[in-house]
Amino acid sequence: MFTAIVENRETACRPHGKLVPMRLATVAFLLLACLFHQAVPSIARTNAPEAAPQVQPYPMQPMLRLAQAKRSPNPNTVGIVTGRPNGTDFAIAQEISTVLANGQETGPRGEVALRIVPMIGKGGIQNVRDVLTLPGADMGIAPKILLDRLRASKELGDISKSLVYIAPLFHEELHILARPEIRNLADLAGRRVNLGEEDSGTEILARDILSRLGLKVTEVNVDQNAAAEGMRNGDIAATVFITGKPARWLERYAREDGFHLIPVPYTSSLEEDYLPATFTHQDYPNLIPDERIATLAVGSVLIASNSPRTSERYQRLETFVNAFFSRISEFESPARHPKWKEINVAAVLPGWSRFAPAERWLKQRRLGAPDADARAEFERYLDQSGNVPSATERERLFQGFLRWWREGKGR
């Protein structure tokens, strides 16, 4: 009945609607109904709870962007820029992340005190550039030879001031995987050789090594999977890869498939920046029979941006150093990568400044300072003697001097 009345009311109240003759009482009733119809929305608005005033979004946008710009990344998260996932530096970064994550207490929402995030980079110079420019790239792993060259060229500015090192890491070996008809480096002359992806650390260092050895090849720049396929069909003679042994990606290849590692001679032209190294059957049982294959190696370094002491990045790195150095013995487990056996976080990188909290941690535990003093004394001795040995000979002499120094100091 109420619906019918409302419908009749609306018809009667329309300005252009046709009014049906009605009794005076009926007309009066409908007139009151029309007045009530007009009043209902006002009454409803009056009785309803007051809605919160709408705020226009545009005045808030600049403030929101400013707040987001000031908001830092998670203070518990530290990023490490590495090379490709098949490289040793990525494996080392993953193990750092795994070991430091274990045994940490979690907060009420499951947060941990420290989280390490490996970041896949391009390697080489780009890793250094990322540490200098990317907000989340707190640290990076880079070859020492590239750091020295960038410092000399100033391609990225004065990195001796903008970068610090946390610790020298492992040595990376030069791998040259070749087709069966390639027996030595000389056989690669004029042939198509893959030097890795463009601007990668492998490409830069491989080109430098081949140039010092006087070997000219036709360069190819593809990833290792594409290079292996090119070797199978005879389009590519060999592929070069620089990483710490054993390289896991090489496990899929064998001599029976027509692949083998070729030796690299260690000549006087390489002594300044490279170290001699070898591959054995234990390193690559599928590729190497009972023999030793000579090759080269270059040291890698864990670097960081030289951030102000009051910055959040500095504080994150200090947290990382205290955790990493305190648990370094856990990385020597047989389950970890074999390269951990080479790593001595107290080793000194001549010509570079160590991150202050790392230096302080080592000195407090008398791990870094004595070796640093020995290095300084050794360098003074060389300066006085006028002897200028090669990098390899210099390191060999220093290790002998260091043994004498430690014995003399009762260490």
Automatic annotation (TrEMBL):
InterPro entries in the record: TRAP_TAXI (IPR011852)
Q: Where is the signal peptide?
A: none
Note the Pfam families from the entry.
Answer: NMT1_3 (PF16868)
Domain of life, source organism:
Bacteria
Q: What protein does this entry describe? A: C4-dicarboxylate ABC transporter substrate-binding protein
- Per the UniProt entry, what species is this protein from, by scientific name? Bradyrhizobium archetypum
Q: Which Gene3D superfamilies match?
A: Periplasmic binding protein-like II
